[in-house]
């Protein structure tokens, strides 16, 4: 019996001397065994039927196996070289600009995520191909390829790049895929008593970035006529921008999220809208339930909603994400008692919040 090391996830698998191809149970890729080990794209349609049902969910650091959802076709990641991007030191362009931040935490296996890299590149592809964002107006921070790393300082500098000198008519986008946390609120400006935060690459040494600071850096500076759309795929991300209005999806109406302390959480005349992966008390999932590759459940369903429905509304996006996640969870009902006990569902409800109430049945535009 020989051992083979996966070049994608470095997991060790066993193989007999007659084996020519094996499937890695770590990243689920297939490998040809010969003089060299070569990673090849996964073709899930050629798996045995029982293997097609075993797909992985990584709940921001914890891995589970769950039932594959049917009816959602896989997507492929665009080539990294397809998107020349801006640098933090560049002068921000007028019109459309976007900050895309994906953190894989590759330096620490305890926190490592595998869906963030394809998440960022697929979001870039969406912005370029569907919404006409210039490739030199997209700033990517990522701990992969040659991008500037998403350290705490770089994210703060990139926040300044995103809003700097923005004028009426400008459309800004902030996308984050990575870990999110919450901590006790010491300022008395949180209804639930907790601050939400995102985790930069170096959060263990440099610290997290809490919602109060995110609001100050990219929400409060928005001038009249400037619109910011934030898309946050992280745990505890419901009100991570501290926006004063939250949409109640179940009741179909806006509700207040104004801090009892009276602290100002609005803009300077502009508009901020945020799609979040889950409510403040929930966790978000990286999963292969929707695609052969790992992807954020929120990111995948968000992109799919927009791509397949050119005139979709804000409410339509929220509905699509909720329904896709619910369908994925329902597909596990027939997996048996042990599966339901040991392989938890995706317990996340995507959210919509804003600096002001607006008609959620209006068309989604960037």
Brief summary:
The chain has 366 residues and is an alpha+beta fold. It has helices spanning 49-52, 116-131, 152-163, 203-206, 211-219, 297-308, 314-330, 337-342, and strands at residues 2-5, 12-15, 21-23, 30-32, 38-40, 55-58, 63-66, 96-102, 138-142, 171-177, 180-184, 194-198, 209-210, 227-233, 245-248, 253-256, 271-276, 286-287, 295-296, 351-354. Residues 96-354 form the Peptidase C14 caspase domain.
Write the topology of this structure:
Blueprint: E1 2-5, E2 12-15, E3 21-23, E4 30-32, E5 38-40, H1 49-52, E6 55-58, E7 63-66, E8 96-102, H2 116-131, E9 138-142, H3 152-163, E10 171-177, E11 180-184, E12 194-198, H4 203-206, E13 209-210, H5 211-219, E14 227-233, E15 245-248, E16 253-256, E17 271-276, E18 286-287, E19 295-296, H6 297-308, H7 314-330, H8 337-342, E20 351-354
Helix pairs in contact: 2-6, 6-7
Plain-language structure description:
This protein has 366 residues and is of the alpha+beta class. Helix content is 22%, strand content 23%. It has eight helices and 20 strands. The strands form five sheets. Strands 9-8-10-14-17-20-15-16 form an eight-stranded mixed sheet, sandwiched between helices. Strand 6 (55-58) and strand 7 (63-66) form a beta hairpin.
């Amino acid at each position: 019996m020989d051992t083979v090391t996966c070049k994608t996830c470095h997991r060790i698998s066993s193989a007999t001397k007659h084996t020519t191809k094996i499937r890695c149970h770590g990243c689920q890729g297939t490998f040809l065994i010969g003089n060299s080990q070569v990673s090849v794209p996964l073709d899930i349609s050629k798996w045995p039927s029982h293997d097609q049902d075993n797909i992985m969910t990584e709940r921001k650091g914890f891995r589970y196996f769950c039932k594959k959802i049917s009816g959602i076709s896989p997507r492929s990641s665009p080539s990294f070289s397809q998107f020349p991007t801006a640098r933090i030191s560049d002068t921000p362009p007028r019109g459309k600009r976007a900050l895309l931040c994906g953190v894989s935490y590759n330096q620490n296996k305890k926190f490592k995520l595998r869906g963030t890299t394809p998440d960022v590149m697929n979001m870039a592809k969406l912005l370029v191909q569907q919404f006409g964002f210039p490739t030199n107006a997209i700033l990517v921070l990522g701990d992969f390829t040659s991008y500037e790393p998403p350290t705490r300082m770089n994210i703060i500098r990139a926040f300044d790049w995103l809003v700097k000198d923005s004028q009426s008519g400008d459309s800004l986008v902030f996308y984050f895929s990575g870990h999110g946390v919450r901590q006790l609120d010491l300022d008395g400006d949180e209804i639930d008593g907790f601050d939400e935060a995102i985790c930069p690459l170096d959060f263990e040494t440099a610290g997290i970035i809490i919602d109060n600071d995110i609001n100050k850096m990219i929400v409060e500076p928005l001038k009249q006529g400037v619109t910011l759309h934030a898309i946050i795929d992280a745990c505890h991300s419901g009100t991570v921008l501290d926006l004063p209005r939250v949409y109640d999806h179940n009741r179909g109406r806006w509700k207040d999220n104004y801090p009892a302390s009276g602290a100002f959480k609005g803009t300077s005349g502009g508009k901020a809208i945020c799609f979040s992966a889950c409510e403040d008390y929930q966790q978000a999932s990286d999963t292969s339930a929707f695609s052969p590759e790992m992807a954020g459940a929120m990111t995948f369903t968000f992109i799919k909603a927009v791509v397949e429905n050119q005139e979709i509304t804000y409410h339509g996006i929220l509905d699509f994400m909720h329904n896709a996640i619910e369908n994925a969870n329902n597909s596990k009902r027939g997996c048996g008692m042990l599966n339901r006990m040991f392989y938890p569902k995706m317990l996340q409800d995507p959210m919509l919040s804003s600096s002001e109430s607006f008609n959620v049945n209006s068309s989604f535009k960037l």
